[in-house]
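Lab notebook, bench 4. Continuing the backlog of folding jobs that were queued last week. Each job is logged with the same field layout so the records can be merged later without manual cleanup. Today's entry covers Serine/threonine-protein phosphatase, a 262-residue chain. Filled in by technician R.K.

JOB TYPE: sequence-to-structure
TARGET: Serine/threonine-protein phosphatase
LENGTH: 262
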Amino acid sequence: MYRHQMKEKDPKATIPALGSGTDRQKGPKNYLFLGDYVDRGPFSIEVVLMLFAMHLRWPDRITLLRGNHESRPVNRQYGFYGECSRRYSEKIYEVFQLAFNTMPLTAIVNKRIMCMHGGISEELYDLKQLDALKRPIDTPDIGIIADLTWADPDMEIELYKESPRGAGRIFGAKAVEEFCKHFQLDLIVRAHQVVQDGYEFFADKRLVTIFSAPFYCGQTNNVASMLNIDADMVASFMLVKPVTDIKGDMNVGEKAEEENVN
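JOB STATUS: finished
OUTPUT FIELD FOLLOWS
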């Protein structure tokens, strides 16, 4: 069902209007973003405001999921708090936290593909559990919310185990297989980790990690990718090569600490 069609995109190309498209899928398109819109760069405010504005303009076509950086303990430490307080005020920062604390955690594509920022949760057995969450709510260190925003796949285990990140859990291929069977899924799509080629499959292609920031933090020479699902539920990847000739005086954000928080 999944076809590996890669398209390399010129990073200098003009971005077309929403839905005008230059790829093989013509007509209106829906866009799903998997979280982490702030931190590790000097223009977090512009990025998240643009995304919020796009969602307001096209609410049925732009969906924004919550990542682990849409949480006060993380974005206060990794740059967003400093940017808000330096450029505007702490009050602006608090307004953003209210928005982050109401964001959705998962999205289902045609009842067959589940998307989230982090990973699956052993505690999630019915999607009604997500509807029952009382928002606004911050991200705890354990539980369903933590797993959906923090969890990672791990080839060394089968089911679930505490995460070395200190939040969420790690999970193995057998856990993915059981989760997909329980929810009748063909694929799980998540982000959260830098992958060198822009995307990386796991658990016999039942799960894929996609990462859409090339040349991450100015020190990781990684490709970025975007996943396209067409009307026939065929998956393809658009790749963006890193631009590594960044001048020394350009601010590309704080250095990553080898994926401690992504």
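OBSERVATION: The chain is about 25% helix and 20% strand.
SIGNED: R.K.
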